[in-house]
Amino acid sequence: MVQPQPVVQPQPVVEPQPVVQPRSATPGFNDLLKSLSPADWTILGGAVGLFIFSFFGWYGTSFGYSRNGWHYFLTGIVPVLLGVALAVHVVLRRLGIWSVPTTALPLAIWEMIVGGVAAALVLIRVVAGDDVGGYGLDRKFGVFLALLAALALVAGGFVRHQLEPAEEAPAPPGA
């Protein structure tokens, strides 16, 4: 006797679904990069440049002695710290961690003032020169690059002032 063969029903093919990770509420690095405006890029570039160029030789001699921006507090370290403060401000503002307080002056003007102070301090270092024991030191290319980077901080504020709408200034009390 012949046994009947059981009928096998084909099983539907189940395609594996890609695993989608839930997106976090905080923006990622790519989101930050996409949100940066030309003014932000200019300020970040100037701040990074000023920090890097502070390690280059600013003054020195032909026989190897050299001083960099970290040898000068007011005209070297302070401008670098101002540039770093502007860069941190840009990143925190774009991440939404910090919002700009309302002041009588728009944000772009504040950025130009802080960048201008940094540029003025580096310019004072360029003009004043330096000496060791009465022997004058030559200006090296690092101090000029640092001056250009500090001017980029001012330019970033100017670009923001030109391209982005100004925040409304608060009405004076009693108006």
Percent helix, as a range, is 40-55%
Task: Detail the poorly predicted runs.
Answer: none
> The biggest beta sheet, please?
3 strands, antiparallel
Spatial strand order of the main sheet: 2-1-5
Order of helices and strands: HHEEHHEEEH
Please tell me what the overall shape is: elongated
Structural class comes to: mainly alpha
Distance between the termini: 108 Å
User: What's the alpha carbon Rg, rounded to whole Å?
Assistant: 28 Å
The average pLDDT is 87
DSSP, total strands? 5
Write up this protein.
The protein is mostly helical and 175 residues long. Helix content is 52%, strand content 7%. The strands form two sheets. The protein has a three-stranded antiparallel beta sheet. A hairpin with a 5-residue loop joins strand 1 and strand 2. The longest helix is centred in the middle third of the chain and has 23 residues. The protein is elongated and about 120 Å long.
Task: Write the SSE topology.
Layout: H1 29-35, H2 38-53, E1 57-60, E2 66-68, H3 73-95, H4 107-128, E3 131-132, E4 135-136, E5 138-139, H5 141-163
Antiparallel strand pairs: 1-2, 1-5, 3-4
Helix pairs in contact: 2-3, 2-5, 3-4, 4-5
